[in-house]
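<discrete_fold_record>
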Amino acid sequence: MTIPAQFDTKAIEQKWYNYWMENNYFHSKPDHRTPYTIVIPPPNVTGVLHMGHMLNNTIQDVLIRRARLKGFNACWVPGTDHASIATEAKVVAKLKSEGINKNDLTREEFLKHAYDWTEKYGGTILEQLKQLGCSCDWDRTKFTMDEDMSASVIKSFVDLYNKGLIYRGYRMVNWDPEAQTTLSDEEVNYEEQNGKLYFLKYKIQGSEEFLTIATTRPETIFGDTAICINPNDERFTHLKGKKAIVPIAGRVIPIIEDEYVDIEFGTGCLKVTPAHDVNDKMLGDKHNLEVIDIFNDDASLNSFGLHYQGQDRFEVRKSIEKELEENGSLVKTEIHLNKVGTSERTKAVIEPRLSDQWFLKMDELVKPAIKAVLETEEIKLYPKKFENTYRHWLENIRDWNISRQLWWGQQIPAYYYGDGKEDFVVAETIEEALVLAKEKTSNSQLQTSDLKQDADALDTWFSSWLWPMAVFGGILDPKNEDFKYYYPTNDLVTGPDILFFWVARMIISGYEYTGKKPFNNVYLTGLVRDKQRRKMSKSLGNSPDPLGLIEKFGADGVRVGLLLSASAGNDIMFDEELCNQGKGFSNKIWNAFKLIKGWEVSESISQPESSKVAIEWYEAKLQQTLAEIEDSFEKYRISDALMAIYKLVWDDFCSWFLEMIKPAYQQPIDKVTFAKAIEMMENNMKLLHPFMPFLTEEIWHLIKDRTKEEALIVSEWPILKSFDAQLISDFDNIIEVISGVRNIRKDKNIAFKDVIELKVLNKEETTTYFDSIIMKLGNISNYEYVSEQVDGALSFRVKSNEYFIPMAGSIDVEAEIAKLTEELNYVKGFLKSVQVKLSNEKFVANAKAEIIENERKKEADALAKIATIEQSLANLS
């Protein structure tokens, strides 16, 4: 079989992905095997692949491919999320570009546009994941707006409502004026921003006196309904029971008293705007204050804003400052650092707003989720450091606002039959709602046309928190075969940024609906950043195109490049050079394979001792690495597992093993050694396959013709066996011996084809097992153990053993003595500088233990080198 000179990534990737798909290797169905299940964190349906997706899904593919090789029934469920806010915003923008206003459409008309949009752009990201090599069970692909998925969400809502856990309440919520919907607390990011503190004068009614009040938001004065003072503040005792006049608005408002006001903060008095501040709302409720909402849905001012009506809040802030200054109401302004809430999705500044919304009670629901992670460790987070973040969020959780003022999403299954706030029923269908409404009103004449469904949609996260259950039909039919077999799932791989939004909520819902955990382990990846530690984003232009990277370096190269630096929970400083390193690794493996397959095999020659020793050593080394890999996977240290394989293949296999067994120039290799070399190559391919699926499958089939049942993707992971650790340790010393010989050859310009002698003063009684390896790799004609030092020879030391290479007049003795003397003087100078440090009591007392240890190692190495050089000089004298 002819092996191409170069590894053509593009042709190979397409060939093998098609082969895997055609033979249905990714598909899983329940059987006698133990299941291993992963559910994908569903990306936005209209999204495209970015570096975070690339990392996250590569890790999942590594886990699922390894599980498949280890004999598990591996099932990786893919899918996408409808992403209410993001997708609706894109559809609205598209309609606007076509001259269509969303508000001019019916809900049904808008949803048709939304489905057309998702049909056109949805699924792009899943197709891109295939180019990365992701071995998802594509037959199980789910979309959170699929009919069965939506039915699961509605069933969940009705169930929780009937349990008394969902309620409708008029409360202060987070309003996103760009998306024009409410957000949960977790969808608000708080950022420190420099702004202004405005000191305003409020005239006391019936007098010439003024109160000065500090505010960061002067535009909200139109919603002021009181001024609050502390009853213990003697400065304002005379104002009790009086009233003040709001600047510009001219409205008269009461001066109230409450110990909530901090006497020491600001001016000691507070303007109260119950409609636009959660703390003001509490004061308003307590003192029965009027509530005035001054904003439209887009955060422009409404009619309460007088001549500012229709203007954006921030524009009003600029304009009103001038007006307040002109009418004498502005005392001064100061620069003020303020925490501002912004929308996690649109980045718009959030407005606190009073609104009727649907909420889910969380205080009891979270208890099993706290216990599972923080007490019993039934669910484990990797790395463990995220447990503190998890604890803080769950122990301080508030009720979840689950309604959104959107059309794209599952419509809330509440049906109104009257004008009152309590004139509604909750049911899965309008027919069931009619039955309930008739019972509630005792009105048998009611018809479905009398019912009006709540216009709001449910929060997207209220859909995706059911994901591990819903993808297997576990909400609609918890006794179905798939759900009983695949749930709970095994590993969840996701980013720490959605630990609250998604991970914790899936744990909560899992225990609520099944009494079981949704997964065993959560592997939290880091964020992918650039070399300057900046988060990758389109706006910064620092995020490479993932598909462009695959085109340039190959999917295997990109996977390796990402994973080599991707330790759990730690951010990745991405550099394209990592992918180039991955591509270089691919080429190294390919060339090693070509070398083996290029050897002529002889049936008649016997196996050399050096090859027999090399095979025993490499088998032990492979087992040692396998043990290391298994330990790394157990601890979810995927990067460490890859690095162990990388070193095994690059250093141990390519650099040492192949050199040890390589036949002489134009000579054949014996069949026993060749068969073992192929066996070792196959084992390497098995270990590498989860990380580099395309290259390994190609080599696997080039080794020999295989049936579809024999494909690498469904082969068997190497079995961990006991190994001789002493053999490996001994070889580490042999590497030093060979390096010593090679250094002298290089230094003295002795070509490898020229044989030399090597004599050893074996003070440590080192094993002679590797003598044949030393002779082959050093091209040594005579390898002899001696009882005393050899005169007239160059020497080097490995531990306590001394090695001598007789030079017999082949060198300029005087020049060599001069060179060694110069080197000796340099090393002695270096030793002196190290010993000065170590004799400094202050340095030894204050330096870290590892620094002291490093300096002592430098001292020991220098002493050993000095002894070696002095011995060489003695031999030349």
In short: The chain is about 45% helix and 20% strand.
